[in-house]
Design goal:
heterodimer; A: mainly alpha; ABC transporter involved in vitamin B12 uptake, BtuC; two-stranded antiparallel ribbon; 14 helices; about 75% helix; about 0% strand; globular; B: mainly alpha
Chain lengths: ~325, ~325
């Protein structure tokens, strides 16, 4: 009668990510010298939302069994663009926001076109397009600098009613406006179908190309939202290769921690968001325990290694020896 | 009769020449031609040898990358395994005479150890290679940050490393190029003349079929990743010898070129298809492209854009997947 068991099985990864994040965040705040204060939450939220948006961008493509190694570059490119056009009055800043989002969509569309009609493997195609996007970012900002429309930036990185971090509210709004309608629409279901089995999806009359194209476009759009937010946080634009690479790699880690299968066809952006928040909390945990900051990268790496060993090892899921061999 | 022999010969020739490899070598010629229009020195032996020397570092690293890609997997741990190779070998040099002697093997061994972790995760735990190698990369970075304190290590490379990377044997033939030739010959032998090599191609085509044909696929995957780790670290050892010391992010610039070189050489990123000759062409192509862009003094931004566009354009020429429906 009720299908709650299927729903539960479907969203197991997402729920696990939420539980792990809550546990880690409680450990983090209870050991923080300032305790569970609005300030601590606000700082953590601003940092986490950046990665959450990029991880969300990665999710759209990963669900279709692809991968987007250019999300970091789009993130950096839109950051540089925003630091140019998001200035002046409220009206010009609004136009600037639109321009940044459109450029993100364009980046996603380029990736989609190369992958779908060029028939190149996504991993190679997005490596190359990522180089182009990063080059464009360097053209825009050879040296770090620029400005941003202050009131908007302050509003989105501050607190609402003095307690609620505005960045989390904005992230929630993105989920409500982009992810929920998408995942429930025909094109969203088509993306899941394509990720599960492209040929079966094709045979069933699913619009394969449209689903993939839409996924890449949305990936570009969400990465641009991330870039926009980075501009709000830093008040400037910077074409940093290290930043781009780090965010690309972290987005893959966050997606996996969030229970999204890299083989496509399962997982949700909500899981990826909590995966991202969890990943950020892991990094911060060391500070509250007064470890030497030198050990932080190693600790983060070991936790990542342990998490992926448990989370994505198919060894623990096989029932038949032959299932080991795809 | 003789006509038959004639067509038989051209057919055999056609079968031997892989179109992607031929196109890649063609692109190298075109690039040299365009370069020579800009400056005569592009065709001078000194310039060409210098390019081949620079290409050897990428060539050694790309050899390991290729073996992993032939399996249908990917190794994203290249950046910090390269750095581990460089840093551990220079660290060993700091231990005195014994250290001098074991610097190179020690650096390579550390890379093999990291490669074994990758291979164990992929082959036995069945973790997607993209994830486990990413995690191992993070761990390797963490280990090196702890080891060096976050700064560039003070130890310099041993004389043997420097000779290997910068010396010349005779006729101005760089040692690094000879090293790449030896590594390449080994790779060709391994891939074409041993059961291990055939197993690598078999697994890349379909692991289940390879397993059912009696190949211990898990062991082959483990060894392949260990080889890739060792070769990446060896590349790092050579780079440390070239610069006479190791640096924090010395491997970052090698991940994308290594993958791009293998793919430009006609290997399928899905595995099972590709020849070492293609990788050689890809490595030279990438090195030449980088060199020409820097010689014409294009700013970094333009370099990145051209780099990306050239890779996409070349892959659109011959790297397209067939419509599998």
């Amino acid at each position: 009668m009720s299908d709650w068991r299927y729903v539960l099985a479907q969203s197991r990864g997402t729920l696990l990510a939420i539980v792990f994040f809550v546990v880690m965040f409680v450990i983090y705040t209870s050991n923080h010298p300032a305790g569970f204060s609005a300030n601590v939450v606000q700082t953590a939220a601003n940092k986490g939302v950046l990665l959450a948006l990029v991880a969300m961008a990665q999710t759209f493509v990963v669900i279709t069994a692809g991968i987007d190694l250019s999300v970091g570059a789009v993130f950096v490119l839109t950051n540089c663009l925003a630091s140019w056009i998001l200035v002046g009055t409220a009206a010009t800043a609004t136009l600037g926001v639109l321009g940044v989002l459109l450029s993100g969509l364009a980046c996603g569309a380029i990736n989609g076109l190369i992958v779908i009609y060029g028939r190149l493997q996504p991993i190679v195609a997005t490596i190359a397009s990522g180089a182009v996007f990063f080059g464009l970012a360097l053209l825009l900002r050879p040296v770090p600098g620029g400005d941003v429309y202050g009131p908007l930036a302050d509003a989105l990185t501050g607190r609402i009613f003095g307690v609620l971090p505005a960045s989390l509210v904005a992230l929630g709004a993105v989920v409500l406006v982009v992810w929920i309608p998408y995942s429930r629409s025909a094109i969203g279901r088509a993306a899941y179908a394509v990720g599960s089995s492209e040929s079966a999806a094709y045979m069933s009359g699913v619009p394969v190309d449209a689903a993939k194209f839409c996924a890449y476009m949305l990936s570009g759009l969400t990465a641009a939202l991330g870039g926009l937010f980075l501009t709000f946080v830093t008040y400037s634009g910077e074409a940093s290769a290290a930043n781009g690479n780090t965010y690309t790699l972290f987005s893959i880690a966050a997606v996996v921690l969030g229970g999204v299968s890299l083989f496509g066809g399962s997982g949700s952006a909500i899981g990826a968001i909590f995966g991202a928040l969890m990943f950020r909390t892991i990094g911060d945990l060391l500070f509250v325990f007064n470890f030497d900051p030198l050990w932080q990268p190693l600790f983060q790496g070991l936790v990542l290694l342990a998490a992926v060993c448990v989370g994505s090892a198919r060894l623990f899921q096989v029932r038949n020896r032959l299932e080991l061999f795809p | 009769m003789s006509e038959n022999a004639e067509t038989g010969f051209t057919d055999a020739l056609k079968r031997r020449i892989d179109p992607p490899v031929a196109i890649a070598f063609g692109c190298i010629v075109v690039m040299l031609f365009l370069g020579s229009l800009y400056s005569r020195s592009f065709l001078s032996p000194e310039y060409l040898l210098q390019q081949l020397k620079v290409a050897s570092f990428l060539g050694v690293i790309a050899t390991g990358t290729m073996i992993v890609i032939l399996l249908g997997q990917i190794d994203l741990s290249i950046p910090w395994v390269v750095a581990v190779g460089g840093m551990m070998s220079t660290a060993a040099t700091g231990w005195g005479p014994v250290g001098h002697a074991i610097a190179i093997p020690f650096g390579v061994a550390c890379g093999v150890a990291l490669g074994l972790v990758n291979g164990f995760g992929v082959a036995y735990l069945r973790i997607p290679s993209m994830i486990i190698t990413l995690a191992v990369n993070a761990v390797a970075q963490g280990l090196m940050v702890v080891h060096t304190g976050g700064f560039s290590p003070q130890d310099s490379s041993s004389p043997a490393m420097r000779t290997l990377a910068t010396g010349e044997l005779f006729f101005g033939l760089p040692n690094a190029l000879i090293v790449w030739a030896v590594v390449g010959a080994g790779a060709i032998f391994l891939l074409n003349r041993t059961t291990f090599g055939r197993a690598v191609y078999g697994i890349g085509n379909r692991e289940r079929a390879a397993y059912l044909s009696g190949i211990d696929t898990q062991r082959v995957v483990l060894i392949a990743f260990a080889l890739a780790g060792g070769l990446s670290a060896f590349g790092g050892v050579l780079l440390a010898g070239y610069a006479s010391k190791a640096a924090q992010a010395m491997g970052d610039a090698y991940l994308l070129p290594a993958i791009a070189a293998v793919v430009l050489g006609g290997a399928s990123i899905l595995g099972g298809r590709g020849s070492y000759l293609g990788t050689v062409a890809g490595v030279i192509l990438i090195t030449l492209l980088q060199s020409i862009l820097s010689v014409v003094q294009m700013p970094e931004a333009g370099r990145q854009i051209t780099y990306g566009i050239v890779i996409v354009a070349m892959l659109l020429l011959y790297g397209r997947e067939s419509r599998a429906r």
